[in-house]
Amino acid sequence: MSAHLAVVANGLQKAVEVNLDQLQDAVGNGFFYVLEEDNATRLLATAPPPWGQTIPSLPAGGGFQMTHWRHLVPVLIHRLARHSGRTRQLSAASCCVVASPPFGSIAAGRDCNRADWERLCPGKPIVAMDGPDADGKRDSLCAPLWRRCRENGPRDAIVRVSGSPPGLVDIDGTRSLCRRLDVPYLGHARLPLAAARPAERPTRIAYAGAVWGHLDSEAMGFNAWRRAIRDECRRQHDKDSNSCKWSWVSMRGSGAPAALTLYAASTFCLQPPGDTISRSGIVDAVTLGCIPVFFHPQQRELWTDHWRAAEASVLFDWTPAAWAEGAPQPLVKDPAVYAARAAAMMAELIAMPAERVAALREAVARAAPALVYAASEGGGQAGGTRGASADAVDHLVARMRALRLEPSTEEQARYEQQLARRAADRVAHKARRAEHSAWLTTRNDTLGKRGKERSPKAKRLERRPKG
Asked: Pfam families of this UniProt entry (predicted)?
C-alpha cells in the first residue's frame, strides 16, 4: 500500500488538502466496476445528470448551476462511469458500483436487486449509491436494502454511500446503520474558484432557509431554532442593514439564486439543522467563501474524510439540556426560548476580530475543492490539469480503493463505535423524554388545581354558550 493510500484509508483527516495527482497515485490502475448490467445503473451511467441552468448572478468561474441536492445519485454514477479509477473488466475489479433503486419502485419493494447484484458481482464489496441523507425519511432510496445491511453488520457485501450517516438525528434507530462511505451534499458549484478569490463582503451575517414545511424539523424542535434565528436577523437588520440579511429558500430549491448571491456577499452563513443536520447550504457557503455557522455539534462530524470542519466553521452548541420554565430542551419548540441565544450568537459574530475571520476564510478556501462535485474529472479545476484539486468524487474513489469484502480492523472498530454511540444516545434520549413527560404531568396537575380554585363566577362564564 502506498503512503498516499494509507492516508486515504485512515480517513484523510490529516491530509484533506491533497491534489488530484496524489489521489490518482493512491488509486493506481482502474479497480472498480460499474455494474451496468443493472438497469438503473446503466441508465444513470449513460445519461447526463440534471445539472440545471447556470446561475448568472454568481461568478461565472465557479460554474454555479441550479442542481437540486436530491440528484446526488445521478451525479455520482455519471462521474464514476467516466472516472480513471474505473475498470471495464469485472475480473480486474476489487469492488462494484451500483445505483440504489428509486424510492417507490418495484425493486425497492422487494430486495432492492440485492440478489442480482451479488450474482453479478460475486465475492466483492458492492458500493451502492443511496440518497443524499440517510437520516431523511424519504431520502433513503431503498429501505429494505438497508434493513438487511443492519442485520449483517460490517460484514455485509453492501457498502452504502450517502450524504450523511444515519443516526445523527434519528436517535430511536428506526433507520438503519450499514457499512458506509459518506460524501458531501450536492451543492450548486462545479468549481471552487469563488471560495479562493478575494471578494467584497458588505453583509456580516446571512441566513437562507425556510422556517416551516419541514416535518421532521418541526417534530425535533429545529424549526424553533430557525424562527429564533430569523427573528433576530430581522432585529439586527433593523438596526444596521448590513449586519444581517435573511433570504427564503425552499426544500425544492426555490429561491436558491437569491440565497447564493447573499452567501457570496456575506462573511458568515448560518446553517441551523432542518429535517436533518445536513444541509446543501453548508457546501454552498464554503464554495462561495462564506464561513458556515453551526448549531449542532454533530454538524462538524459531517464528511470528515473531505474537510476539517472544526477549522473552517464556527459552532454555537444549542443542544445542551438547559431548562426553560422547567422543560428540558431541545424538546421545547417555542422560538422565544432561544431568542437570547440568537442575540448572543449574532453579537459574537459581529464582534469577531478581523484576524480570526481571516483565518477562518483561509480554512474555508482550503476546504472548498473536496466538497465540490465537478462536472468532469479534474476535480477543482477545469480541464483536469496537473496540480488540480481533487473534488468530492475523487476523494470517494480513493476510499473505495481500500474496500474489501472482509472489513478492515479500522472499519470494524468504527462500526462498533457507531453502534455504541447510538445505544448511548438512545438511553439518554429516553431519559430526557421521561423527564419531559414528568414535567408535563406536573404542569398539567398544577393547571388543574388552579382551575379548581377559580371563582364560581369564572366557571359559570366558561360554561356559558358562546354567541
From this structure: Exostosin_GT47 (PF03016)
Give the Cα separation of 355 and 348 in Å (integer): 14
Domains of the chain, by residue range, sit at 3-188+385-407, 193-371, 421-463
- The strand pairing partners of 160, in sequence order, are 128, 180
pLDDT for res 467? 44
The predicted structure's pLDDT at residue 380: 44
Residues of the chain with pLDDT under 50: 1-15, 174, 321-329, 379-387, 461-463, 465-467
Length of the chain: 467
Determine the pLDDT at residue 381. 44
Question: Quick one: 277 exposed, middle or buried, by C-beta within 10 A (0-12, 13-18, 19+)?
Answer: buried
Q: Is 323 exposed, middle or buried (0-12, 13-18, 19+ CB in 10 A)?
A: exposed
**pLDDT tens profile 416-446:** 887 787 777 777 767 767 776 777 788 777 7
* Arch. (CATH architecture) of 193-371: 3-Layer(aba) Sandwich (3.40)
pLDDT (0 to 100) of residue 444: 74
Residue 241, number of CB atoms within 10 A of its CB: 11
Grid look-up 428506526 returns 174
pLDDT tens-place string over residues 377-425: 654 443 333 345 789 999 999 999 999 998 888 888 888 887 787 777 7
Q: What is the pLDDT of residue 193?
A: 85
